[in-house]
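Replying to the earlier thread about multi-chain prediction with a worked example.

Input:
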Amino acid sequence: MTAVGDDGFLEFDRVQKSYDQQTLVVREFNLSVTRGEFVTLLGPSGSGKSTVLMMLAGFESLTSGDIRLQGRSIARMAPYKRDIGMVFQNYALFPHMTIAENLAYPLKIRKRPTAEIRSKVQEYLDLVELGAFGNRTPAQLSGGQRQRVALARALIFAPRLVLMDEPLGALDKKLREQMQLEITRLHKQLGFTVIYVTHDQTEALTMSNRIAVFNAGVVQQCDAPDVLYETPSNGFVADFIGENNFLPGELVGLTDDVAEVRISSGDVIRTRRADADRLGMRCQVSVRPEKLFLMPSDHAFDTKFTARFTNKLYVGDFIRYFFALPDGTELVVKVLNDLAAPDYSEGQEVTLVAATKDCSAFAPHRPVPE
Amino acid sequence: MADAATTPTDMRPATPGPRATAATADVALTPAERRAARAELRRNRLMAFLLVTPLLVFLTFAFIAPIATMLFRSVHSPAVAELIPATLERLSEWDGQGLPDTATRTAFASDLRTLFAERRSGRLGEEINRVLPGASSTIQGTARRLNAEDPDAVAASGAEMLSALNPAWDQPDIWRALQRAGQVYTDRFFLTALDLERTPEGAIQARTSARIYIDLYTKTLRMALTITVLTILLGYPLAFFLAQQPSGRANMLIIFVLLPFWTSLLVRTTAWIALLQTNGVVNSTLMAVGIIGEPLTLLYTEFATVLAMTHILLPFMVLPLYAVMKGIDPSYMRAAMSMGARPIRAWWSVYLPASLPGLSAGAMLVFIISVGYYITPALVGGTDGQMISNLIAFHMQQSNNWGLAAALGSLLLALILVIYFAFDRFVGASNIKLG
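Result:
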């Protein structure tokens, strides 16, 4: 990994933002980023993640709270003094300048000597593998090439921080994957600190050191990708990150780290304790489709329940089995397409098993906005 | 219409099929298919042509023909040639030195007598007067006296009679004027319009009397430039502000920009008269506040013309600017600032080049419209604030000198074309954008 250190390099301290003096679009945002870290702000559109980025860049003011970079408050600093590079979703390359002129722009503003500018521009063009494209105009480049130029332009003046606002949103799937690798490569190579905004969870999971999941202006959880995926702290995160089954039930048992939930089939599922904390409350058991197994199974398990088989979908490398609980809840199980993949008749009762650590009991959450 | 409009739509789904097959199988079209394809192409072309035909007809009658007429009139002047054809035929052999021969002068005396009898000698006087000021009274006076003489006597000794009636007929000037005014195709209107004249020897020189037209052209250009600069100064920040607003509010504000278009031009100009006149709103306010003791002369000045025209032409600047600025991504400015550019620098190096197409379009619109503006200078300009179009109108309506009016108009047209080509050369016409 990159040289991560210098704790509290960038700090958000109870940052709040309101546009209309009535509602907060960002509430009580706290985050501490270390130098060299790749932190992603992830959330559905309108969740406040872009507002946080704009406040960090200086294009929006803070309603309250403070942002500190290297220990100094930048909340009232003009954007052009912050020394923060930014990559925009629509590239924002200046159309009347060539690629080389675009790259030279921040250096010219810093009044660097011409020779240095020329060699720096060539160095960064080579870095993003566009060495021969210096004399083209942005209009002559493809989307992916433009985004690489935008990336180089944000890095060339060695800013203290690089912000990326959905930089891959305008690219198609294949290019997006290439660019993810490209950004990760540059991040490892140059070790800059990144605040990355996206609504695409795959992008967030593959690239980040840490992800802050936003919903309705509030950070739901901020953790490393695997922690976020394996042990989400509430229903929203479990629903938003990856695919999940939600089994409604009643909380019937609670110890320090295990919760017991009775679902509509009458089975009691043992789960990891999450934010469901009151005996007798309505709650949801979440368990990922690839963590559910069909009996008989070689996988270790310590909780089980029965469901009725409804359908199966042949995907190719795996098969999706659909089951229904007595209350109509549908759930899906992902099974590798190997010799062990079973055949069921419709309506057949099947026993599903899982490990307690892979199940979580959550208080009911509002559905994730599309 | 409906039938024709549906045809291409109906054909379209069918087209990719055969074409795709032909491409993959590499099979040539059959003659029948080729004929059908050609026929469809022809139909589409005909349709397109029919759609623009009404406009073409209209443009021919309302635009191309009048301009052609104007250009033609500026060099074509048949009036004198129709009045005294016999004299002019004889004068064409005269070399311009001394006096024309007796026969010529006698022929003219006869012509003049006939013209007076037909009440057309005044027209001749008017035409000759334009070439030789003062000639009108000479011709009219002589014609009246000749009319009293016996026609045969005039035909016999017209030359002597002319000399006896007015000594001017013994000078070569008036004969040269007749000869020049008699030219059916002439450059004299253009020479007059450029403040030039011909010496008796025929060489071109600057007119010895006052320079009128060049000064007026210069003043017109200067005023148009002032108005353009003023509309930029007022319109650019406004358009910038509008482009930053959310679309709902921007649309509401654009209505205020458009509001002047819904008011009669005359009403708006008259409003300026009410504001600027000696006892008008501006003067009485300034006097009431005590800034001035005596009313200022605001109306009927160049200042009034520039002020009123800036107001009237402002929308022509704001609208193209707004349309272009709305398309400028706000992230350009943000990107520039994130790279360390101060707002002014970011604006200068990024926003201004991006808004240049709108600025060019607005500036060209305002400049070209104001160079040819008529109503406002006529109403609020007085003598001081007149522009070239007012003089053109004067020559058409009052002095009845259509040839000169046409020459002035042609020069104005040429001037605008020159400006346009200069603009194209230095800025690039492709940089003009209305949205």
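Strands of chain B lie at 196-198, 204-206.

Feel free to reuse this layout for your own posts.
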